[in-house]
Recover the amino acids of this structure.
């Protein structure tokens, strides 16, 4: 795969800023799963929602996350730069470096400071828009993000399992190694099927030609 694929690229020359772009996967997982668990407790024991009601809001939030994940990956992380050097730099900092170094374990998740800011913004937004139910909905959303992080980390660092979860490995590898104009879903290929961005598997195409 080569050193470019396995080594860590550099974003900033300043060593402090550069250090802030990296994290161990356990840190954001602890943050997001922790907020998810705390949100469930608050929903049931403080706000008085039923367990079933809380779980329903959780599930809705988690499903909504897969949609936002798809939209952000497709339209933000792979935005058209239009020849702008500033946009090209922004795109590289946000996501391009990950495509250059997909096995860099320290850049498979947002760094802690950014994670906390993002979590706070989303929880505040859901609380504002949905009222009290926004707490459980937000908890499900952030739990969905934590699950996404686990899937993304596993796909890039572990061999694909010989079970149904191997579909996620195959799907994301299509995005990285076949073409980054499709297969934008990581935690689920659902939205790629819905919006028609599911790329053709070259192995399936080869079999069809040889048939």
């Amino acid at each position: 795969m080569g050193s470019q694929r396995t080594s860590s690229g550099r974003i900033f020359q300043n060593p402090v800023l550069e250090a802030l772009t990296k994290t161990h996967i356990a840190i954001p997982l602890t943050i997001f799963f922790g907020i998810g668990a705390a949100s469930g407790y608050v929903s049931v024991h403080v706000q008085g929602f039923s367990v079933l009601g809380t779980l329903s809001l959780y599930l809705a939030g988690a499903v909504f996350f897969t949609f936002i994940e798809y939209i952000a990956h497709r339209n933000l992380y792979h935005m058209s730069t239009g020849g702008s050097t500033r946009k090209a730099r922004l795109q590289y900092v946000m996501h391009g470096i990950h495509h250059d170094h997909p096995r860099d374990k320290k850049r498979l998740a947002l760094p802690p400071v950014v994670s906390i800011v993002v979590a706070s913004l989303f929880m505040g937004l859901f609380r504002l828009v949905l009222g009290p139910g926004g707490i459980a909905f937000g908890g499900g959303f952030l739990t969905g993000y934590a699950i996404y992080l686990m899937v993304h980390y596993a796909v890039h660092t572990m061999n694909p399992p010989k079970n149904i979860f191997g579909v996620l490995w195959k799907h994301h590898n299509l995005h990285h190694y076949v073409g980054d104009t499709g297969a934008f879903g990581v935690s689920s290929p659902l939205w790629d099927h819905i919006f028609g961005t599911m790329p053709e598997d070259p192995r399936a195409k080869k079999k069809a030609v040889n048939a």
User: Anything to note?
Assistant: Residues 11-161 form one domain. Residues 1-6 have pLDDT under 50 and may be disordered.
